[in-house]
Write a structure and sequence with these properties.
There is one protein chain. Helix content is 45%, strand content 15%. The chain is α/β, with parallel strands linked by helices and 320 residues long. The protein has two domains: 216 residues, Rossmann fold (3-Layer(aba) Sandwich), CATH 3.40.50.1100; 93 residues, 3-Layer(aba) Sandwich (Rossmann fold), CATH 3.40.50.1100. α4 packs parallel to α5. The longest helix is centred in the middle third of the chain and has 17 residues. The mean pLDDT is 95.
């Protein structure tokens, strides 16, 4: 499936295009017997880790594939990463399917770099279905956000940076949507440091990976309750499911109220802008601090594309 060598090779391909994002100690969350670090992928290009995977895939395209163009499906950040990659790699034609619920900030980034954005469906799974139907009719290369080996390898480069920045990290906490990020992180981290613990976090509105691992069945389509974490709803990718047992040590579910508080905590106390999907790890820490006692934990803040209206609503709720 995905190997450590795949991730190292991905970093070589993408290193000139991405930032090495900070790994910062959280003074507010840390204590004498618990050190908390924030890996700020919300400060990555396009304010999301997704640029890593898109670039990893698209730097491998042949000249023929570049001429024909690519097709992607996204809840927002992957689409922005694909659009940016298509622009900087020579103006590759990009067509991106997104659900109608995609925040405007993410749509703006996709369109800014020249992608054709197609709004289809009320959630990620419906947009994904529409994208696959379109793919059958067009000779385009599909850039899958969750179950493409090259995309996952690019995402795994986050873990290489974390353990270079602080080799003492013994736990990494990763938001889970389709599962691509935690798969790449799990492979990289456990190859470098076999005893490290990799913990996933899902919103209780859509615990697709929790139930896939429990039921030993890959739920590629999964129903969800209303959620502010649009990047974490929908089904699980096949590769992440197949590799879940070796990459994931534990998954914590957090409810939407906890996530809302975590977004505001990061904004108010840490001065970090995180979209809800990126803040779920901090929500898990705030509601389950005992899990992280006597550990040095890196929480990946995966994205910073926080909608302005939602930001205002959350601040009003939690600060007044």
């Amino acid at each position: 499936m995905i190997t450590f060598q795949d991730i190292v090779a991905a970093r070589e391909r993408i290193k000139e295009y991405i930032y090495r994002t900070p790994l910062e100690l959280s003074m507010g969350l840390s204590s004498e017997n618990c050190k908390v670090y924030l890996k700020l992928e919300c400060q990555q290009k396009l304010k999301s880790f997704k640029a890593r995977g898109a670039l990893s895939k698209m730097t491998l395209l042949s000249e023929e594939e570049k001429k024909k163009g690519i097709l992607a499906v996204s809840s927002g950040n992957h689409g922005a990463g694909v659009s940016y990659s298509s622009y900087i790699l020579g103006g590759i034609r990009a067509k991106i399917y997104v659900p109608r619920t995609t925040p405007g900030a993410k749509l703006d980034k996709m369109r800014y770099y020249g992608a054709e954005v197609i709004l289809e469906g009320d959630n990620y799974d419906e947009a994904h279905e529409a994208a696959l139907k379109a793919l059958k009719k067009e000779e385009l290369t599909f850039v899958d956000p969750c179950s493409d080996a090259d995309v996952i390898a690019g995402a795994g480069t986050v873990a290489l940076e974390i353990l270079e920045q602080n080799p003492d990290i013994d736990t990494i906490v990763v938001p889970i949507g389709g599962g691509g990020l935690i798969t790449g992180v799990g492979v990289a981290a456990k190859s470098l440091k076999p005893g490290i613990k990799v913990i996933g976090v899902q919103t209780s509105a859509c615990p697709a990976m929790v139930h896939s691992m429990r039921d030993k069945k890959c739920y590629e389509v999964y129903p969800n309750e209303p959620s502010i974490c649009e990047a974490l709803v929908g089904g699980v990718g096949e590769i992440p499911y197949e590799m879940s047992a070796q990459c994931i040590d534990q998954i914590i579910e957090v409810d939407e109220g906890e996530i809302r508080k975590a977004v505001v905590y990061l904004l108010d106390k840490e001065k970090v802008v995180s979209e809800p999907s990126g803040a779920v790890g901090v929500a898990a820490f705030m509601s389950n601090p005992e899990i992280f006692k006597n550990r040095k934990t890196a929480f990946i803040i995966t994205g910073g594309n926080l909608d302005a209206k939602l930001m205002k609503a959350l601040v009003n709720e939690n600060i007044g």
